[in-house]
């Protein structure tokens, strides 16, 4: 972390030296000197950081000092830039003299830190020498090798499947990867199967080889040779010359030995693809049915090792709740209650098991501790409430932290802050990937890469964390991209502990209401009294404030408090707060890059917003803002302008609202997302200015009139990067005249049209990259399916009130890649025909409202990949036909894992699926179960 902070400060200092010509000359020299010193410190900081993380106390102190002085530099520079920004010049003379004094103090401090490093150099930076004290460290993974057979819970089917793959008659060499998050039981599973005599007896020689993050190739090869020789069925003596062999000789010796033998080898806990790249050359494809097992946390590595159709990947998941409970009870209550939970402990025990989220390592370790505690509910509750501290303090539980921290220490430095950022998120909370990425960018975590946007780089960062099994996917979009993500609760506890240690973030809640004056981020997870925070007399080092639960804010004093006590804020996320107004003082938050008032009752954005020259994201979704001041056009760094609201109960074109913008939008050339803007009275000029926004990826226009359609497409047709486009007419009677469009952006992946169409625009069928098509209120005379069915990459199709016809017909071969389909019609749809061979890859089907649909489409029985079938607002008679007990059409849907029926409930405010967003219906509707 110190490395990341120092690197960020260096990037801040560079432009200051170049651009701040009015700085006192001696100050500029000192700033340049500090930058040079930090760059020299950075060269050996990585090693010192690693030594600090593994317990070297001298390195820990030194790294802490470097981190704190880096924070100090950041504050000095940010305060200077704040003063300069407010004065629209180069800062006052007083401020320049002040910064000169502060820089001198910092320079002296850095000199002392460097002198200290020189004095204790062998301990801090060199990482070698006789003076280093080696600390004994117990590898927590060793316990996985000694799990008794009766303790195996929840992996029996995986064990049996893996056993079959090992002893099968397949003569080819088979590579089997077992992949999953830390502590999920990969080593336990592999070891159990490896230890079975029925398995080992099928092979001429066997070897179990642990692989560390810092493995040495020659040592791995020697270990393999020795273990193979020792386990061979024929009497064989390990050649004495092995210890003197180099890498190439060892590889040749291994190949020579293994070519004649059917071998089994397990590589446990492999971290990198480079390991397999080198080791596979020592493992000949000898046609004798040899087997290789690899356990890994890396999904990327598992896929990399699958080089042939007969190789396998086992994706090991946490235990389901029922099996997790069985394992917990077996360990916690075996001694006193025969493996059964006493009634008085059931509630707290269930909460503890839920906290473990099916992670076997956590369940076994925690239940082991509880098995020797008094069986008193109050004592167990205290343990649960302090679990974060227990993970760090109890020797029996530190193994969990150590195993997770192995993955943390293996992260490249650019990912560490991104991973720790999940500590700001509440327990059991899934965050939108778009929101997370925008926050990372605002925090400065994302490094620029040539030819890529910051958003694209951030997506790669997130993908890497997912592939390393550190971040879990909560939901996906129809195109397979991740929609929401989270971290395991136990992993989150370890992140929180690490974040507090590094002053990275503090979470404020009922049990934690304090933070120190070096904390950089505050995350508030409950209805917390913010006066205690906002009234801090001393200017805080806080850079980010987040709300993740509905919170009451001291509204009249909010902005004055923030600008007085937290004037260096870069991120302010007030989503879901009880907030109705943003006061003009917001313009004083000069450094602000991210501002969100999503899901609030804010109605007006003050003109002072134009002072936020560094603002990158302005999130106004689901609030009441209907017009933006002209000063918004001064925000030249703005990347995301998000505005959207609609009436979830009475969904109509009138209910879908964006924001009115005055002229000058063409100045916002960094915009990536503009979602939604209303086509107001000056629509012609608005659309002309769109031509300047060539970086747009996502654009939504509502309140569109027929006469403006051609101007709109003239404005966007040359946008080479536009992927998402939504167009919505001003009313259901207004026609979207899109027939004259000749060259729509070829890059479009998502198209949403709301409003009447004379006919289906012919250019839609030419969109080779289109993945998601949403048509609503189109009122077409002709069935559009024939024209749409050949779209080569279409994954999601929504047809709501699209045509007047009585029948929808899906022919064999149509929609070859479609995974999601939903349709509704209140105007006469009587039947739906799905021929065998149509929609062969469909996974989710939503039907309704369709009040005149008489029968369940019998062709649903052909959809063998369908996993979810949802009926919304359908007649009771229609629903009864599918009930398991008496429904005559149950045979049509009986093969589908999930069949549900949704109904609106009067008087409740639901966030229903609308034209602009495909929501998760399970969370938004009341369903009557299958």
Task: Give the strand tally.
Answer: 28
Return the CATH architecture of the domain at 151-315: 3-Layer(aba) Sandwich
CATH class of the domain at 151-315: Alpha Beta
How many DSSP helices?
31
Give unreliable regions as ranges: 125-138, 906-930
Please bin the fraction of helical residues.
25-40%
Describe the structure.
The chain is α/β, with parallel strands linked by helices. Among the domains are: 2-126, Single alpha-helices involved in coiled-coils or other helix-helix interfaces; 151-315, Rossmann fold, CATH 3.40.50.300; 321-400; 413-496, Arc Repressor Mutant, subunit A, CATH 1.10.10; 773-930, Alpha-Beta Horseshoe (Leucine-rich repeat, LRR (right-handed beta-alpha superhelix)). It contains 31 helices and 28 strands. The protein has an 18-stranded mixed beta sheet. Helix 11 links the parallel strand 3 (263-270) and strand 4 (291-296). It is globular and about 90 Å long. The model is unreliable at 125-138 and 906-930 (pLDDT under 50).
Defining key terms:
930 residues, alpha/beta, Single alpha-helices involved in coiled-coils or other helix-helix interfaces, Rossmann fold, 18-stranded mixed sheet, 31 helices, 14% strand
